[in-house]
Amino acid sequence: MSLTDDELKQLREKFEEEIAELEERLPSMKEHSKPVEPDNAIGRISRIEAIQEKEMSERGLREGVERLRVLKDQLEKMGTDRFGRCIVCRQPIAFGRLLFIPETERCVGCA
Ligand SMILES: [Zn+2]
Predict the structure, then answer these.
(1) Distance 17 CA to ligand 1 centre (A)
(2) Residue 80 pLDDT class (50, 70, 90 cuts)
(3) Ligand 1 center–CA 91 separation, angstroms
(4) Ligand 1 centroid vs 105 CA: distance in angstroms?
């Protein structure tokens, strides 16, 4: 294990923060990715803008759901020797990389 207890603690906090943020954001993203009604013009938002927003929301939602899954998986692995190891080469992933890209499962060399 190449990470210190203090680094692990920081990472755990970071992961929990990211998970909480995603769980808070995802329900409203689901709301935005519902089908656009023909006369669904809220204020100055046109139908085209509503559709574009829906497409962006759908992509964001898919990415968000996937990110949440990986983050939870990572958090579960934390404390085991599988955590912080590259899924390709099995080498430890640098602390800084885990902190900035918490959902990463690969080291810099394999990314
Ligand atoms: Zn690697």
Answers:
(1) 26
(2) confident
(3) 6
(4) 9
> 85 C-alpha to center of ligand 1: Å?
8
Q: Which residues surround ligand 1, an ion (CB under 5 A)?
A: 86, 88-89, 107, 110
Q: What is the pLDDT of residues 5-47, one digit of tens each?
A: 999 999 999 999 999 999 998 888 877 777 777 665 556 667 7
Rounded CA gap, 68 and 46, in Å? 31
Within 8 A by CB and 6+ apart from 70, the residues are: 103, 105
Could you state, in order of their start, the residue ranges of all structural domains in the chain? 5-100
